[in-house]
Amino acid sequence: MQKNLVIVESPAKAKTIEKFLGKDYKVMSSYGHIRDLKKKDLGIDLANSYRPLYEVPADKEKLVSELQAAVNKADVVWLASDEDREGEAISWHLYETLGLRDKQYHRIAFHEITKNAIFHAIENPRRINRDLVNAQQARRVLDRIVGFELSPILWRKIKPALSAGRVQSVAVRLITEREREIDAFQSEAAYRVQATFLKKEGGTPYQINAELNKRLKTKEEALEFLNRLKGINAFTIDSVVTKPAKKSPAAPFTTSTLQQEAARKLGFSVSQTMSVAQKLYESGKITYMRTDSVHLSSLAINASKAEIGEAYGKKYVKTRQFSTKSKGAQEAHEAIRPTYMNAHQTTGTSQEQKLYELIWKRTIASQMADAELERTTVTINIFEDEDVKFVSSGEVITFDGFLRVYLESTDDEPADNEESTLLPPIMRKDILDLKESTATERFTQRPARYSEASLVRKLEELGIGRPSTYAPTISTIQNREYVEKTNIEGTDREYNVLHLKKGKITDAIKTEKTGADKNKLKPTDTGIVVNDYLTEFFPRILDYNFTADVEKEFDYVAVGAEVWTDMIDRFYKKFHPVVEEALNTHEDHKVGERILGIDPKSGKQISAKIGRFGPMIQLGTQDDEEKPRFVSLRKGQSLGTITIEEAIKLFDLPRPIGEYEEKELTASIGKFGPYIKFDGKFISLPKDADPYTITQEEAIELIEAKRKQDREKLIKIFEGKDGKDGKDAVQILNGRYGPYIAYKEKNYKIAKTVDAAALTLKECMEIIKTTKSKTKTKVEKKEKKKTKVTEKKKKVLEEEAKEKKAKAPKK
DNA sequence: CAGTGAGCGAGCTTCCGCTTGACTT
């Protein structure tokens, strides 16, 4: 039996380490934390100096008993969780939960997974650092207090199941404020002037493009300028300046930079990047993907050096160690890099291959020489004694260095026409002819909305959130419907172009698209209302510096200079009274309400606010005798901008549109768009139809079309015991995606090669057996929504089983 | 993806950071 038990955080790591350590060591994984604050209620004993109430979560119970069994068999336990605040706490929770004795355990940590690092760690064991553990407890308790005291306020004041927290609420604030900047933005127009010159006789002929070094504010100014140009018949090159420049490679990937580059270069979402990286990590191809460190092991640097030397030559090698500049970095791991630098590519899905290649290139490039460039700037004189000049610049790469492998992308869209070009052989004093010149009206750009990846970058910059939480945070704020992805078509905008050629000036109007935006983050009405409410009542928590400030205090705790419960006490004594105050201010469910006015028809008040199902309009008040009427806002409408007329119009639906076959016809808008309702059935309206204007005739046409479709839908029925609609009936139907079999509430696709109408019952049953149905039954759908309910059931079952065991006689 | 269109009463929701796997009669 093995005498030594090593516990690490990740199972992939466990596997690797076990190989290094040999047969005297058993290596297990804790799969992260094994204990947490009680899931229900606050989980903190406020009356007892904030004592945390810990429990092993249900899904960790089995693991903990396996760990316990291994501990009981081992002589020595090596707690090898990561060397950071969370890692220290993981070790301590293991120590507490598994009942380790002080003489029985060693605390060790390694920053890279190499044989040397592991043996070095084993030779240098230490004790658990209680101060660091306390810093983690302070972090954990503070986050729980903030989250579990703020969220219920939102349930009462705005809508159920909302949430707030130190990280997510600030993320929403960033997005909301950016949207306000965009709303307030006034774009300004100015004329950009470009010109093309030709060299006059003598020497080698050439052509050169240049731009005026200032923009002209008005059309009059631009016209006047072109007219003055017209009168000049020779231009002189005033200066030619060439300067050497250098570009250095970016640091190897951290979680956040990987997410940004994968988004820009590969179009991956933040969570997609993480799951692909996880696959690469599990198959041993890259190092750990949740890291804030840019550090590379000496092993990796040497391997890169060898690869670069072999592939590109020695002068391309320049090894470097980068240093982390992000706030609050804990650097328990290496940067994200290939495990084996000599593997330039990898196998697997195409996503895995692409991401791997990106990581390989970034790592290799980080150890390559700077690129060397020459930047040449040419100025062309226009008028005597005036500062306005035409300027042309070009760039030549004299040594490509790391650019040979990799260039980091930027978020900024390239400014139009600023691409650097190779310049012809130009000499000072050269005389030029003007070929043509264009003055184009250009508009200043509004601020850019955040993308998932640029939001991550901003959060990291502010020191908010950790590598393991960036992706989940972004999902949370979308799941809560605080923010959503944009899909804005944009509108046409006219701009003016003045063109001078052969002494003539033409004046043209052109159009361009503006305001289009896709997959960027934008606040919803709910997000705006929640954000405004929280920033008003809890400015401290929503402050961009809040996390950085409390992190400083956690650091004091971590070095033993501060008692963690004192710190929490100071915080709570300030925070909690505001919670109480907030609960007592405002009527419930009225936050963010906008009174639009009085409905002229009924004389009742019309207001807009966030309701149980999102933004809505209310007609009447609770105090009225009659119950108020409610209606949800439509897509594209928002609380802040909806007018009373638009609001009143929403109550016109559902709209009666006469009768057909002595039954009522109504038109309305539902979850799936506009529809007409007839005889208890719903028929979706085609895109060009409007429920506010659709006529009885048009509606009847739709009903008949639907009837015809339904008739064609049914190809064949094999009746069951209970007739053709019975539970065991087999139906062959024509659906949107071709013929299919419906049986026992599930659907089975029929292959295109099969003649559906000719199928026998036997053949149908064969298809049912062999085809996998993708249909979710109603039960499954429900269960997916309420997995927690099943979890509970499971627990009850488990407990029953335990009881039985206990009752059973012992051997 | 195979068919849809909320609205009651009771009890529920929620945080951030570590880590993967995703029940069966």
TrEMBL record:
- Known partners and oligomeric status: Monomer.
| SMART domains in the record | TOP1Ac, TOP1Bc, TOPRIM
Signal peptide positions are none
Enumerate the SUPFAM superfamilies for this protein.
Prokaryotic type I DNA topoisomerase (SSF56712)
* Full protein name: DNA topoisomerase 1
- Region (Interaction with DNA) spans which residues? 163-168
Top-level taxon of origin? Bacteria
Q: Which GO terms describe its biological process?
A: DNA topological change
Q: Which residues form the Toprim domain?
A: 3-113
Question: Mind listing the UniProt keywords for this protein, alphabetically?
Answer: DNA-binding, Isomerase, Magnesium, Metal-binding, Topoisomerase
Q: Which Pfam families match?
A: Topoisom_bac (PF01131), Toprim (PF01751), Toprim_C_rpt (PF13368)
Q: Which Enzyme Commission number(s) are listed? A: 5.6.2.1
Q: Which gene encodes it?
A: topA
- EC class, as a word, reads isomerase
Basic residues bias: start-end ranges:
783-795
List, for all copies, the residue spans of the domain called Topo IA-type catalytic. Answer: 129-579
Which CDD domains does UniProt cross-reference here? TOP1Ac, TOPRIM_TopoIA_TopoI
An MF annotation (GO) of this entry: metal ion binding
UniProt-annotated site: Interaction with DNA, residues: 33, 139-140, 143, 155, 290, 480
Q: Which PANTHER family match?
A: DNA TOPOISOMERASE, DNA TOPOISOMERASE, TYPE IA, CORE
- Active site annotation, chain numbering: 288 (o-(5'-phospho-dna)-tyrosine intermediate)
Where is the region Disordered? 773-811
Matches recorded under InterPro entries: Topo_IA, Topo_IA_2, Topo_IA_AS, Topo_IA_cen, Topo_IA_cen_sub1, Topo_IA_cen_sub2, Topo_IA_cen_sub3, Topo_IA_core_domain
Q: Which reaction does it catalyse?
A: ATP-independent breakage of single-stranded DNA, followed by passage and rejoining
What biological function has been recorded for the protein in this entry? Releases the supercoiling and torsional tension of DNA, which is introduced during the DNA replication and transcription, by transiently cleaving and rejoining one strand of the DNA duplex. Introduces a single-strand break via transesterification at a target site in duplex DNA. The scissile phosphodiester is attacked by the catalytic tyrosine of the enzyme, resulting in the formation of a DNA-(5'-phosphotyrosyl)-enzyme intermediate and the expulsion of a 3'-OH DNA strand. The free DNA strand then undergoes passage around the unbroken strand, thus removing DNA supercoils.
The family note in this entry says: Belongs to the type IA topoisomerase family.
